[in-house]
Design brief:
2 domains; alpha/beta; single chain
Length: about 350
Amino acid sequence: MLELLSLFGITTGQFIFGATAIGGSIAAKIAVDMDTAKKEREDRAVTKAYDEMIQKKKQIEVSLFNEDKQKVNEEIKKNYEQMQVDRKQRELKEYKLIEDTCETKYPYKGIKPNSMDELLIGHDVNGEPIWGKATNYIVAGTTGAGKTRKMYPIVLNYLAAQQGTLYIGDLKGTDFFMFKNKKNVVKYVSDLENAPEVIKAFESEYEARKVLFNQGGYINLDDYNKRSDSKLRLFMLVIDEYADIADTFHDRIGRPLGCYADLVRLARKVRSFGGRIILGTQRPDVTVICGQLKNNCAVIGLQCVNTISSNVMIGNEGCERLIPTEALTVMNGKLVKVFSYNITDEKLNECISKLR
């Protein structure tokens, strides 16, 4: 080794010093690397602890939010339930007020119309009769709004004062059965299965009059009665709960089919021949009050649950704020409030007993 060092001109002292320096450099580098690794481990531990702290914070925030949300929802529900109770009490109070004033003050009685075209659809706040001049009417409102009580005076006054013929589809089977044996009632059915029959019977009268008018060159019913020796009266189709028909007889996109399509077509054509159609429903939505019917029927809008239903019925808000016995309808482009006559069961039976 000494000879080799001598060959390169390196003394023993220089060799020892160099080796010591190199060893120290390596040791220093190892020490630095260890410090760096230790620092990185510490940084990772701090980062992990921080991430865990942030995650825990988020969990606490979510927990507190859900707890607060639940408390808020419970408070809202409690307030809403109280509002519903208050609203119901207010409605009952207002309804009682109406019972004590308008209804009791203005009980139903037969009133002769000024012309054959008019139907008694109710009275104003002063008790004066309101005569509807539309060919067809849809009486619509939510359950308990007074739909049937609104329809009774229309039918009673029509039979008593105008003595026209009547075709009845009483699809609930309980509200118009008392009319079925009267002389002027041509056809009565009490279920959905037989609903097409009453519509077909009504259509047969329309077709017969159409042939008669065409043969004689008559423009309408008034013209026929003026120029003919024989006289014809109105003929009316009344269908209560007609939503059952709308729900059953339609295609996959809701267009009327079968007897429902016949009903829509008749509503468009019967006026000149003396036909009238009155439809009742507790479902004032677009699937029942379809555009084709609404174009040819005036709507008497009773109390409903929201502004959407009100707009479907009368094209405006307002019906959602009504109470039982009140209704809104459009006459001559204006909204008119119509009150129902007070007609008790005793009065109803009395009036029906006087019919032929």
